[in-house]
Amino acid sequence: MVRKLFLLLVIVAVVWFGARALVHRGEVKATIVFDHAVGLHKGDAVVADGTPIGIVTKITPLDDSDAVSVRIDREHRRDIVSDSMFAIGKHRVVVTNTFAVGSPVADGAVLRARTDRVSSWLARHAASIQPLIAKVKHAADEKIDELDEKHLDAELAALKAKVPDWNAEGSGALDQRLGALKSRVAKIEDDLRRSNRAEEARKVKEKFDKWLDEVQR
After folding, report:
1. How many CB atoms lie within 10 A of CB 125?
2. Residues 44, 97: one domain?
3. Domain count, the chain
4. Is 70 exceeded by the pLDDT of residue 143?
5. 35 assigned to some structural domain
6. Which of 72, 94, 128 delimits the end of a domain?
7. pLDDT tens-digit readout, 159-189
8. Which residues contact 26 (CB under 8 A, 6 or more apart)?
9. How many CB atoms lie within 10 A of CB 181?
10. 3-state per-residue secondary structure call for 117-175
11. Which domain does 72 fall in, by range?
12. Three state DSSP letters for the chain
């Protein structure tokens, strides 16, 4: 009888752990380090854009800081990215992605909450200026979209026609113009990479390097 009861308990435990593992598969566990986590407790919500996306699972003192362990629901695992901002509200961790452009964090990631005055204010109040930020982002995206290969080809072709005039002004003038172009193209490459368009950034660099080689012959 005792052996049967023990076997039954083992079976129940295996089934329970298996079910728990299945339920939590795909979730993201992360640690956010705050200067202090006063008023925050295990079980408090993690909230992004007003929507609960997970819970606080543990708070651990870490030197002069507090490490807050969180578990993010699998359907919201992309709501914390590498440059998210964090703040502690009333019984909640507030996640703000208004200015975030980073990639989703991996399971087990350790993040540091920015605590300067501007970041702290934005982490709490960025939602109120979200419409303005959206307009700025849209304008920036439109600018970046203008930096495709066709636009670059046309512009480089037009500039190539001006190279003889720059040469006529002297080598110093040519070097100055080409230097300015190099800086501009480097900025374009950087903007594309920041927009997760690394392949386009590579093509822009290749096109410009080829163009530069032609005009300097």
Report:
1. 12
2. yes
3. 2
4. no
5. yes
6. 128
7. 778 778 777 777 677 777 788 788 878 877 7
8. 74, 77
9. 17
10. HHHHHHHHHHHHHHHHHHHHHHHHHHHHHCCCHHHHHHHHHHHHCCHHHHHHCCHHHHH
11. 27-128
12. CHHHHHHHHHHHHHHHHHHHHHHHCCCEEEEEEECCCCCCCCCCEEEECCEEEEEEEEEEEECCEEEEEEEECHHHCCCCECCCEEEEECCEEEEECCCCCCCECCCCEEEECCCCHHHHHHHHHHHHHHHHHHHHHHHHHHHHHCCCHHHHHHHHHHHHCCHHHHHHCCHHHHHHHHHHHHHHHHHHHHHHHHCCCHHHHHHHHHHHHHHHHHHCC
Contact yes or no for 208/185 (Cβ under 8 A): yes
Position 12 pLDDT exceeds 50: no
Average pLDDT, integer, range 36-58: 92
Two tokens at 20? 């728990």
User: Domain check: are 56 and 124 in the same one?
Assistant: yes
- With contact defined as beta carbons under 8 Å apart, do 200 and 151 qualify? no
Q: In 3D, which of 11, 13, 22, 111 has the Cα closest to residue 62? A: 111
145-157 pLDDT per residue, tens: 554 555 677 777 7
The 10 Å Cβ neighbour count of residue 53 is: 22
**In this structure, is residue 1 part of a structural domain?**
no
Q: Quick one: pLDDT at residue 141? A: 53
Quick check: 58 pLDDT over 70?
yes
Say if residue 134's pLDDT is above 60: no
Residue closest to 147 by CA, chosen among 207, 64, 74:
207
pTM for this entry: 0.49
